[in-house]
Amino acid sequence: MEMEQLLSMGFPSELAAKALTATGGNSTLEAADWILSRPKSPSTSSDIHATTTTTDGDSFPFQPKLDRFFLPQSKPSISSSFAADNQDADATPSYKRPKLEPIDNKSSGPLSERMRPVTIYDVVGQDHLLSPNSLLRSAIDCNRFPSLVFWGPPGTGKTSIARSILHSSKHPFLYRFVSLSAITSGVKDVRDAVEDARKLRLKTNKVTVLFVDEVHRFSKSQQDSFLPVIDDCSIIFMGATTENPSFHLITPLLSRCRVLVLNPLKPHHVESLLKRAINDLDKGLIKSVGMRVDVNEDAIQFLAANCDGDARIALNALEVSATTAASRVLGNHGSLNLENEGNGSASLVATATLDDAKEALQCKHLSYDKAGEEHYNLISALHKSMRGSDADAAIYWLVRMLEGGEQPLYIARRLIRFASEDVGLADPLALNQAVACFQACHFLGMPECNVILAQCVAYLALAPKSVSVYRAIEAAQKVVRESVGQNEGVPLHLRNASTKLMQDLGYGKGYIYPPDNPSSQSYLPPSLQGYKFLDWPCFNPHHHQEAS
């Protein structure tokens, strides 16, 4: 077995036998290492006749089959072209060996970083921000940039647009771009950046654009540090956040900045970005795997449709898909897909399929933050769908929350509130259903409780609606809170006369027992006589009997 493996690597039989004898014959890897560790005669890697000579006088040609077993660490990337095939008549049998190239450090980052747009004209999507008469275009045309805050979901182009603005200006050499992350930076880093900006302004008249990613992570006091340097024009401030600025940024900072809202990318926008990465020979997909990669159209469409508008996720999944496809080609040397090019050389071509894309993405990405903006957006959509008696929409938003990782008990608590606030007296049993749903979710947990939540959501959506109790409690709260002076005491006839003294003081005097005398009596303080909080036809027991 070991001999066959060594021969399959391209070693001569005599040398393979010596290696097995020297290493004990139990390990192919040790035998191959023994051969490769022997002193080599002077040769170049581009010479296909290069030989390695052992101390025993044996010489053998370098074999291409070894490349997939032993790739040099200093040159891990494989070029898309092979060494030219020029052999003498007495040379060993012909073969083509992949040429090894060092990785370019500038292009060794993730595909999503390499494919960032250089100018705003390269930006895909966000047309509402980049139209000819937009704020950004006007700022670029006038070469005067305001302080900005970019708000949008991850992977929608916040950082890319901020970087590309300066490169798009008529005089980009007048600006310097400095980037900080609120995750790893503090007030000291901001002060250092501002101090450098002031020195640079005095020496070269260059203006510093200070970009702060995840700016919502700065505390109130940290955000305060930006205010004076924005006012005295020491910097042009640009921030990026995935959270609602109204809740996470201080009002003074917002008053000094324009907030630009970015939307999730549409599938056709993501498709355009993916195809750009596939076709870009300088910094695109070919730089990730060292060979050309063809990606099936259905794989592109799958990634674009399931990344939830996040270009970074789509590009990263594309890169993983390409890596899978390339490894499949390199691991099957006997069935390499070779395409002849016009210059007579050949190149490796890998094909990324839909299965590769599914394996790379693993599951559909859902944009959801259990404590952020999307959390409140989805629970609001669920409430409004049930209030509008649309059971289909309500179940859809329920599933969006569950698939995003929301705790089922949180949803169940919201359903209990809905049962009283929106269904109320129109169907008093709705509250029983919601409480039972909460208890069942507590007993079972996910994923078994998903159908229980769906049943309760459907019940509440289809139930008749009444907000009379909700409005009654609000009206009563308003009267109690806004009453002039002290709240009136309880009328004497409604008080409980538990002692003789209380009876002497008139407690309970004049109270009419309803079962014995159904005549009406007043239960409100004198100033509120005739006041109606609950607008419901059956709040009176006589009305209820008549209705039944």
Describe this structure in words.
It is a single chain. The chain is built from 25 helices and twelve strands. It is of the alpha/beta class. The protein folds into five domains: 2-70, no CATH class; 76-83 and 95-115 and 265-367, Helicase, Ruva Protein, domain 3; 126-261, Rossmann fold, CATH 3.40.50.300; 373-466, Zinc Finger, Delta Prime, domain 3 (Up-down Bundle); 492-547, no CATH class. The strands form four sheets. Strands 6-7-8-5-9 form a five-stranded parallel beta sheet, sandwiched between helices. β6, α8 and β7 (207-213) form a beta-alpha-beta unit. The chain starts with a helix and ends with a helix. The relative contact order is 0.06.
Which key features would you list for this structure?
548 residues, three-stranded mixed beta sheet, 45% helix, five-stranded parallel beta sheet, alpha/beta, 5 domains, single chain, 25 helices, Helicase, Ruva Protein, domain 3, Rossmann fold
Layout of helices and strands:
Elements (H helix, E strand, L loop, with lengths): L1 H7 L4 H11 L4 H9 L14 E3 L5 E3 L15 E6 L15 E4 L9 H4 L12 H4 L4 H8 L5 E4 L6 H11 L6 E7 L5 H18 L2 E7 L6 H5 L1 H6 L4 E6 L3 H4 L2 H5 L2 E4 L5 H13 L6 H4 L2 E4 L1 H10 L4 H20 L7 E3 L5 E7 L1 H8 L11 H15 L3 H13 L4 H16 L5 H16 L5 H13 L5 H15 L17 H5 L36 H7 L1
Parallel strand pairs: 5-8, 5-9, 6-7, 7-8, 10-12
Antiparallel strand pairs: 1-2, 3-4, 11-12
Helix pairs in contact: 1-2, 2-3, 13-15, 13-16, 15-16, 15-17, 16-17, 18-19, 19-22, 20-21, 20-22, 21-22
- Give the CATH architecture of the largest domain: 3-Layer(aba) Sandwich
Helix content: 40-55%
Number of helix segments?
25
Biggest β-sheet strands, sense, barrel: 5 strands, parallel
Coarse shape = extended
The proportion of strand residues reads 5-15%
Calculate Rg over CA atoms. 37 Å
CATH topology of the largest domain: Rossmann fold
Spans with pLDDT under 50 lasting ≥5 residues? 40-106, 333-346, 541-548
Overall tally of structural domains? 5
**Strand order, largest beta sheet:** 6-7-8-5-9
Mean pLDDT: 79
CATH-level-4 superfamily name of the largest domain? P-loop containing nucleotide triphosphate hydrolases
CATH class of the largest domain: Alpha Beta
Number of strands: 12
First CA to last CA: what distance? Answer: 92 Å
Structural class: alpha/beta
